[in-house]
Amino acid sequence: MMTMQAEALLLQGVEAAGKGELVEAARYWWQLIELSPSPPLLTQAWFNLGVLCNKSQNTRNAIACFENALRADEANHEAREQLALVLAEQGDIGNVSDASDASDAIGHLQRLVTDAPEARHHFNLALLLSRERAFDQAELHYQLALTLQPDHADALSNLGLLLAERGMTNEAIDCLKRAAASAPDNATVCVNLGGLLESTNQLDIAALLLQRAIDLEPEDALHHSNLAVVRVEQRDLAAAEAGFRQALALAPDFHGAAVYLAQLLLACGRYAEGWPLHEARFPLAAATGKPVLAVSDAPRWQGESLHGKTLLLLPEQGYGDEIMFSRYVSRLREMGAARIILLARPQLLPVLRSLAGVEVLSLSEAAPLPAHDYWLTSMSVPMYCDPSSIPAKLPYLQAPVDAVQTWAERLGPVTDKLRVGLLWQGNHLHANDAQRSLTDISVLAPMWAVEGVSFFSLQREKVETALDLQQFGSEIADFGDAAALLSQLDLVISVDSAYAHLAGALGKPIWVMLPACRTDWRWQYTGDTSAWYPGVMRLFRQTERGEWASVVEALAVALAERVALRTSGLKS
Question: What is the pLDDT of residues 375-388, one digit of tens each?
């Protein structure tokens, strides 16, 4: 009799749940549990309640219900699977908000793959292991999932991403191509494969895949932004702009798309449009967990009159950005600022203190902050200072006099040879460093065929090379030293780096080697000169991604011409 009553309550709950009467369904199942029926019915009741709680986002109660289901029947794989998945969600392994939940989730899935080795269990376990950065184990379980189900598109896709992270690009592409063949209508697979192909310069196929993702999920703003990024690399700038704008129309708070659009506009010289959009870098940084410089309690300057006012300027991003945007203090003085205080990182103090009309303080020692009326970060200044133009009077920085004397003695007497400084690698932490830096100095070897040149390394690290290269980089203590060393050279040849900006700000002839992939917005997309450093900077651009040979060949030709002009006594 009790078994029949319990079965009836179970069915009544199922019927109520099917009608959307969730409270009523829960009441039937609680009544069933109170009867203490045999394990199969008790397990099913607890399981059903767990599903209800999870749907209602009552996660903790869902966990308790699934645990009770397992107490009634430890071998119930369905309850164990649901418990593992809810624990994984509760643990939020990406942020590790509850490490014990994450560990428990993995433990339950590890038991499942032993007791019930199904493809989905291996996949879920691999997913959690990957999020905890246990990549070797994750790869193993993705492979086991594929052994059981070779066309498991998500396993193929995730395994492809994992292999790509490990630098196994060809194997990753193969995995993702198999995933796409298995699930041609899976937008995520299209995006993953498209992104990987973009990274390997297969832009046309990448664009087709990303367009396919848009066709499948037209309301997904990220798909539009992803395709727009590829359009930039293809130099289809009109399509790229339209894509970023569509992404923002679908998701107005999509800060990543706003920054991309801003950089596109700035690269096209559309400064009045670009600078305001570029402000999205702040909420983007906050959303991605990157530190944002703390500011004072004073109001942020937004273009108000500066007459009789003190403005505090704060640094942001890289050393090169600080050097590049320090030029705007001249514009601020013209706008009537009574006092400008520039906070700077210690490495830059010796050279930034040569700026006229500004107090430069060390960021590490400016506590408490000096009194001021407004504050602003340096890269936001152009938005309020005639954004359509660039203050580009050179030089606007000077090397410290004492350091100049020291380096003049260090390099020795001037000879007939052209002194050329070389920097072939930038900051390895830069997001695009793999594209903008050279693998090593041997790439530049063809320039040594030019007679009448002495080469000086500007790299901080000493390199082993058979090339005739004077190396003083390890003796450079800060940017004041760097500026003094540059002052003793006739020419600087550099990748996109802070030293390129320093040379330009000093008015020193500077040739910059630029990558074809993700060229920084400030150098625009075409041309061999820069509006930021007119008359002193010359740009040498890759024509194909990763191909530096033609750039070095052009540099060698230009170097020979410069030596010839010097020899003839003409101004070079």
Answer: 999 999 999 998 78
